[in-house]
Amino acid sequence: MATNTARREPYIGEKRNFKREGYGVYVYENQYFRYEGEWKNGKKHGHGKLLMKDGTYYEGQFVNGEINGHGFKYFSFSHCKYTGQFLDGEMHGYGVMQYKDGSIYEGHWHKNKKQGFGVLRTSSKAVYEGTFSGHQRNGEGSQTYDNGDRYEGYWVMDKRHGHGELYCADFSYYVGQFAEDMFHGEGKMQHASGMLYFGQWLHGFPSRLATKLKLIVEESPLVIRQGQPFKIAVKCLDDEDNEVEEDQGREIQVMAGFKYIPPKQGSVLFDMIEDVEEKPIPTPFGYEVVSYPLTDQLSEEEVTAEDDKGEKSARDDDGEGEGGDIAEAGEGEEEGGKEVTGLSMEDGTATDLMQPPEPAASPSQDPANTELATEGTGNPCAITPVETTPLPPPVSTRRTEGGYVEWNNLQLSPPPPLYRPFVALDEDKKSNKKLSLKDKFGEYVLMVQDVTNPPFLGTRLEPVFLMLKLKRPKKIIVKKPKWDTQRHIVAAMQARYSSGGDP
């Protein structure tokens, strides 16, 4: 029994002289392609639409059976849309490609690849304008990034390579050589933090990069006196301990600290600082510290006072030795003098440092002040309020020059009221005996740290620490004339006669 198989005509449309001519629809034998459009001499020619079974299609100009001229192509797999010039079925010439992620390329194409000048917008802010080769950024061009950075220079195989300029959104900029998308070669960077580096770069980093700080002092441990200025210097070194002179503008901070003593739970101090406790700073000495006032700006009054003290104690300094402080104290008591000292943990406990000066003697204790007391407020027992002196400003940060920075006038300031470590020591005073000078060594610590902001190349140098040995301040003997009873009686009688009293 014979079966009749009906074969569908592949072409439906106009013909002339037995050739496809005019408008017609043709379905290819493999059933994958379908053409709808104009024909001439049996070939696709003019405007037409070529559809593929996967959903991809082209609509535009055909010339002698080939896709040539201006047209539109939709790619079903990538959902990209191209509008522009074609040559022999390939994107060739000027065209615009819209990608699925929203990116848009406008420019020249060569055999389905971006080639020549074009503009690639990958987001509302990220834009590249320049030359392409083989679908990649290549040659001269500028790139604006999503974060606001902008690069102008040369590219090789889609990477920054050659001379270029990078301007960052934080106002940092680099001008110099690039390789493989990194700073490489000679270049200059002006960082947003104020740092400046000019020289050779290797794989994104300066060829001579500071990796640590070194604290330069006259002696170690540093021995200082309360109220007396001292100086320090800081150098920036590399891993081989060589000074990095190319390091310019790094911001360095110096501060002092005192050994942190955790308050006992339930104590007055614990209740006071429970919610506002300052975070202790770890040190390499096995304990933590809290900041202690340090200044490099002395007021004129303080400077004058120090000068006066220096003149008065010149004689004592000549004979000062290892135990000179104690000797001076004994000598002062024998001569009936009065000692004037600065604040120092070595002179006593925390209570000694925090208590205000003792009030002046009452008229009953000092006959010489009888007349002054009666001419006052009328209350001989009244205590004159103690004037409070504001804390001096902290040490200002400084920037490196040639990998070096120094401070020449540092000074430990008196502690602020209710300074936490001293209060804690005061609470332990009842149960602990007074600490010796030897025990006090190391309680004061000098800290130097890199506070460059923002950090240079994303990192800061590790801080360095130095123990301070605080010595007793120089004793100043203020001599008073010995009490002369007869002289004061004569003066009192003369004052009475001059006022018209009876002899």
TrEMBL record:
InterPro entries, alphabetized: MORN
Protein name: MORN repeat-containing protein 1
Gene3D superfamilies in the record: Histone H3 K4-specific methyltransferase SET7/9 N-terminal domain
Compositionally biased tracts (Basic and acidic residues): 306-316
Entry keywords, A to Z: Repeat
Bias (Polar residues): 362-372
Chain spans, region Disordered: 294-400
A Pfam family that the UniProt record links to this protein: MORN
Biased composition (Acidic residues): 317-336
